């Protein structure tokens, strides 16, 4: 473990050296982020998953710097140019850009104008001019030879050499880098003749903004337009300011030699320094914009994966359609397909009656608790048809976001699950399963196909995948999975498992029946002690040998719970079921060398609510009546809607037409911006006011501000907002998205 890495990480993250070192040790031993966060709080000082992930990333970054530094030192040493001062400079920096600046003069070069001039013997002349003594230019005549025809050619070659020296000067590059940082602007112009083709980018046809102030979506939009050949862009500070820095450092005289150095300085900036730094800042801006876009995508994905589940109940799922009909499937409470068919509820003939009869028959035969309707084409019409059916019992109808269902239905996973069914049946199954358990179903789909990000195809794909994979792992382990019913795709995301061990677990279940206790995991092929340690606490067994197996209490701490129960003269089951028994327990009595107060408090919380699902309770939502297509939407209407996507510039809301409306960040309610407890969330039910409708361009502009925030009178609603909460349990209060909402607040301030 490198002590310098520990010091750097603790300083950057504002944590103690002990926290950084202990966490780095756990990661190096193969512990996963969810396991460390949940079961090693004493060791890390209660660091959360985000902090542990940052430690992992920073450790990787500093290792890369070390490897690059080692290569540079080796290269310069082999050139026999290493000095104690140079070695000290190289050892002192932990920024790759600074490291490369120091290395630049020693970096093996391809043929340049400067190297050509040096080959012609002009380096001594360059040194003479660089000293800027009067009369040095006359010496150029003495460098005329068979390779240099005139004194002017000699001076030009000398200037090329000086320009390269200026370009390689680390101090000058550092000063210019600071100028680019503080005053650099990103400007863009339309490529001549591309105005019509690039109309959607017209806001950037003549554009300039301070780079440090630009939000990620603008940077990515300009870069995308540039890659499509619509725009050309540049990043630079005011040229006079940049040249002032270069001239002040290198043009120190007033004679003819100083004039030559001044010309070389201008050439150095325009030909070498500016393009180099522009590329660096372009890459940096792209990286920063990527990071912000990926953060938004990751947070959206987290909310989508943790959407409220219906739970294990029998469902009928409908994938709506007009001409080809609606694909309908019946699923049991575990999502297994029981039946499938095609109905035509939207035709004005006997087929409509047949559709109603089939749904009634299935609802009775399969004891259906709910019906899921995909929100794609014909979704609203199909939903209305189903809601009018009298099933003789209460069957709730839910609109389900079907983004990515077609991707799943054509995937290898779907073909493996339903080899004898076509893609339409598989798609309907996916819609139904998303209602039963969104997390279990969505893990089968590439997150990029779910449609909750911005510019996902423009950002660094490796970083995007890493971030989204982390979110999926975090969500799956946060919720926990049923060891006896979870698919191999869901099990693969459990801490310490992966695809191979997940498949082995499913195979063991098929050959030996259901697991009755967690210790049986050790019988699974290739699942060793380390994997068991990492995964056991996140796997649940209902009605098993030990009630603790259906909780988040780790098997390594079962002995403590047994001791607690013994001292209360009761069973573990009784301890978990009776508050008065648990209240008698003083956790401090059980602290030892391995277990601290944090872990003991977690254990007692888990005993009080074993296997509690952290997700919200599902609620029924209804769109406004009579609003089916964009032509039905008029400015001034107040409509119920569902948040379908959150971006850096606002939120998209589904109001029941085929096109989602945009609530620009400037039209988010103040409560969503200023109050972290009221953060706007994916799948949130909201009320919006229609500001503008552009049917031709399929754009709807919405506002979430209430009448007081707008300063106007109360708007009249065009349709009722019907949202019915489940009666058996009140909805849990959603956790605030402080970090994400802070970013939205910062972006809103920029617009203001």
Automatic annotation (TrEMBL):
Cellular component GO terms held in the UniProt record: cytoplasm
User: Which InterPro entries does the UniProt record give?
Assistant: HHH_9, NA-bd_OB-fold, Ribos_protein_bS1-like, RNaseH-like_sf, RuvA_2-like, S1_domain, S1_Tex, Tex-like_central_region
Gene Ontology molecular function terms on file: mRNA binding; structural constituent of ribosome
Which stretches does the entry tag as region Disordered?
702-739
Checking Pfam families in the record gives: HHH_3, HHH_9, S1, Tex_central_region, Tex_N, Tex_YqgF
Q: Where is the S1 motif domain?
A: 636-705
* Gene3D superfamilies in the record: Nucleic acid-binding proteins (2.40.50.140), RuvA domain 2-like (1.10.10.650), Tex N-terminal region-like (1.10.3500.10), Tex RuvX-like domain-like (1.10.150.310), YqgF/RNase H-like domain (3.30.420.140)
Top-level taxonomic group = Bacteria
List the GO biological process terms: nucleobase-containing compound metabolic process; translation
- Bias category Basic and acidic residues: which stretches? 720-736
Query: Which SMART domains does this UniProt record tie to the protein?
Result: S1, YqgFc
Q: Which PANTHER family match?
A: 30S RIBOSOMAL PROTEIN S1 (PTHR10724), S1 RNA-BINDING DOMAIN-CONTAINING PROTEIN 1 (PTHR10724:SF10)
Q: What is this protein called?
A: S1 motif domain-containing protein
- Per the UniProt record, the source organism is Chitinophaga dinghuensis
The beginning of the lineage is: Bacteria, Pseudomonadati, Bacteroidota, Chitinophagia, Chitinophagales
């Amino acid at each position: 473990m490198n002590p310098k890495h520990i010091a750097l990480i603790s300083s950057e993250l504002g944590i103690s050296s002990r926290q950084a070192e202990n966490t780095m040790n756990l990661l190096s031993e193969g512990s996963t982020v969810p396991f460390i966060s949940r079961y090693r709080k004493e060791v890390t000082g209660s660091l959360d998953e985000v902090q542990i992930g940052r430690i992992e990333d920073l450790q990787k970054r500093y290792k890369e710097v070390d490897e690059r530094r080692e290569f540079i030192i080796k290269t310069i040493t082999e050139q026999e140019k290493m000095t104690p001062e140079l070695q000290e400079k190289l050892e002192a920096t932990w920024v790759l850009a600074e490291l490369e600046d120091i290395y630049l003069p020693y970096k093996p070069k391809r043929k340049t104008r400067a190297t050509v001039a040096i080959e012609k013997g002009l380096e001594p002349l360059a040194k003479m001019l660089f000293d800027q003594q009067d009369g040095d230019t006359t010496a150029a005549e003495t460098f005329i030879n068979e390779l240099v025809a005139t004194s002017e050619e000699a001076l030009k070659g000398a200037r090329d050499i000086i320009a390269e020296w200026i370009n390689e000067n680390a101090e000058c590059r550092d000063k210019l880098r600071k100028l680019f940082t503080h005053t650099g602007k990103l400007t863009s112009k339309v490529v001549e003749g591309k105005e019509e083709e690039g109309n959607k980018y017209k806001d950037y046809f003549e554009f300039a903004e301070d780079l440090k102030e630009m939000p990620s979506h603008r940077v990515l939009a300009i870069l995308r337009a540039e890659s499509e050949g619509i725009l050309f862009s540049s990043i630079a500070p005011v040229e006079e300011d940049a040249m002032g820095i270069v001239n002040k450092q290198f043009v120190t005289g007033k004679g003819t030699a100083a004039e030559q150095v001044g010309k070389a300085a201008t050439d150095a900036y325009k030909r070498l320094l500016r393009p180099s730094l522009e590329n660096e800042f372009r890459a940096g801006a792209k990286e920063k914009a990527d990071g912000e876009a990926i953060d938004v995508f990751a947070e959206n994905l987290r909310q989508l994966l943790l959407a409220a589940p219906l739970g294990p109940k029998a469902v009928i799922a409908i994938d709506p359609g007009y001409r080809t009909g609606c694909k309908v499937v019946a699923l049991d409470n575990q999502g297994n397909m029981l039946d499938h068919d095609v109905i035509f509820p939207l035709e004005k003939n006997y087929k409509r009656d047949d559709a109603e009869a089939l749904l009634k028959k299935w609802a009775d035969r399969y004891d259906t608790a709910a019906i899921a309707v995909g929100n794609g084409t014909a979704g609203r019409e199909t939903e209305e048809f189903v809601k009018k059916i009298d099933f003789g019992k209460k069957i709730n109808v839910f609109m389900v976001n079907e983004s990515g269902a077609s991707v799943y239905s054509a995937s290898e996973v779907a073909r493996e699950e339903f080899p004898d069914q076509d893609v339409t049946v598989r798609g309907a199954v996916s819609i139904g399963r998303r209602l039963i358990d969104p997390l279990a179903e969505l893990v089968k789909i590439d997150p990029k196909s779910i449609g909750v990000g911005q510019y996902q195809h423009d950002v660094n794909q490796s970083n995007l995948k890493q971030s989204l994979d982390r979110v999926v792992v975090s969500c799956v382990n946060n919720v926990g999975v049923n060891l006896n019913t979870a698919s191999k795709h869901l099990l693969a995301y459990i801490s310490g498992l992966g695809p191979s061990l997940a498949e082995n677990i499913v195979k063991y279940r098929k050959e030996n029946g259901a697991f009755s206790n967690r210790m049986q995991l050790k019988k699974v092929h290739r699942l060793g002690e380390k994997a068991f340690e990492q995964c056991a606490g996140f796997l649940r067994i209902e009605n098993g040998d030990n009630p603790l197996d259906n909780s988040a209490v780790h098997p390594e701490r079962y002995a403590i719970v047994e001791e607690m129960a013994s001292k209360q003269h009761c069973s573990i089951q009784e301890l978990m079921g009776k508050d008065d028994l648990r209240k008698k327990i003083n956790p401090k009595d059980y602290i030892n060398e391995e277990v601290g107060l944090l872990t003991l408090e977690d254990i007692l919380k888990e005993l009080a609510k074993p296997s509690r699902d952290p997700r919200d309770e599902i609620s029924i939502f209804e769109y406004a009546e009579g609003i089916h297509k964009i032509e039905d939407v008029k400015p001034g209407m107040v409509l119920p809607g569902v948040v379908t996507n959150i971006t850096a510039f606002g939120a998209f809301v589904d109001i029941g037409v085929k096109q989602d409306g945009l609530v620009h960040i400037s039209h988010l309610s103040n409560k969503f911006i200023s109050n972290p407890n009221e953060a706007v969330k994916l799948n949130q039910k909201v009320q919006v006011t229609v500001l503008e409708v552009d049917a031709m361009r399929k754009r709807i502009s919405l506002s979430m501000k209430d009448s007081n925030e707008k300063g106007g009178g109360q708007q009249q609603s065009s349709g009722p907002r019907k949202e019915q909460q489940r009666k058996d349990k009140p909805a849990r209060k959603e956790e605030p998205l402080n970090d994400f909402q802070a970013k939205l607040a910062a972006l809103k301030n920029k617009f203001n």
